[in-house]
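Apologies for my clumsy wording, but are you able to produce some protein sequence, whichever is easiest, and the tokens describing how it folds?
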Amino acid sequence: MKFFQYFVITFFSFIALIIITSFFLPKTIDAELTQTIEVKKKYLYKYLSDVQNMHEWSMWGSYNDSSLTYSTEINSQSKLPTYKWDAEVLGAGSITITTIATDTLEFLTSIYEDEFEMFGLMTFKQLGNETIIYRRQTIDLGTNPVYKVVGYFMQDYITTDLENELLRIKELAEAMTPLEHRIKVLYDNSAQGTDYKYGWGFSCLIDNTILFDTGEDFEKLDFNIKAMGIDLNKIETLIISHDHWDHTGGYKEILPLLPNLKKIYLPKDMNTEMTKQATDKAIVGNSEYINLTPDIILTKNFKTTYNGKSLYEQSLLLKTEDSLYTILAGCAHPGIDLMVREVEYDRNIKIKTVMGGFHLTHTKEDKIQELISNLKQLRITKVAPTHCSGKNAKKIFEKEFSDKFISVYTGKEVEID
């Protein structure tokens, strides 16, 4: 009998202790961590905001429990994406992305048949090519004394789980290869400062391996190549957009300096001497689209007239992360809007950025405005006019496209994404 009395007293004393202790414990648990990841914010954000990827990185993911099965859905009313899981060790639960903002993701996690709710937060800040993630997880323990006491001792476990989650995100994100292209402008009719030489013409290098046009003067082109630290050994492809002196001026002298050059793509009716110099590497006047890489396409030859003569011009298409394209033109003699329209029809693709010469130097303002209107109707969102576009046209383009206008000049490195 005494034993039973002692047991009852002890039991209720223990319960009382828990209740009294719980008064001094917080109703929530907060775990906060940061992680620096060597991936640009836009790519990291895109990956983490996709509910389809949660099973790969979430602390409630398959990397934590190989028995896990999951599904994803979009709520028909709220339109909020939800990730649901079930697993032997982790149990069952769901994560709903409640807020998707420019620099922030917020989550609501329900576990153990909605017995616990956790509020998650991620913010993203880009510094250079790195992104700093701030991650916070808050568990609402409510007023239940047992939950509050147990939760207090779970603090370290939650922090460890968050730490592992961020390390997992870092591992996955830094293994990604975001689809972007770098265009280095080797020759244009303008330059900033005195580090580079400029002249009438155009030349650029795409992803360090594709040389597009050669400017009007080899000495200036060569000077800029050296000033920008270009490794000519990496260039495997040379493209001449059209047979005009301001795009072929450095052609003859640059060829012997490209030891690993494999292909030269020349437009139809190209100068015979230049065609001969290309020897067996030349492909002249292609009538089809050519895949130079999985993400870079050489267009067919567009036919137009210039000073009463036939002229053929070819351009490049650069695919980006969002499966949209940039068209890179030499001078766009056929009309950049007509080229966009025809390419989109031929390839069943969508172009979002136009870059290159738009041949508008002596064009009246009303015609420039008409071209801009056509590009906007084609849903072009970014423009990067180069040498033959003309100063007046560039000003109008900058006014019309605002922060989606890319200023181009000799020595500039343009990131296409």
Summary: The radius of gyration is 30 Å. The chain has a mean pLDDT of 87. The longest strand covers residues 116-127. Residues 258 and 309 are 32 Å apart (CA to CA).
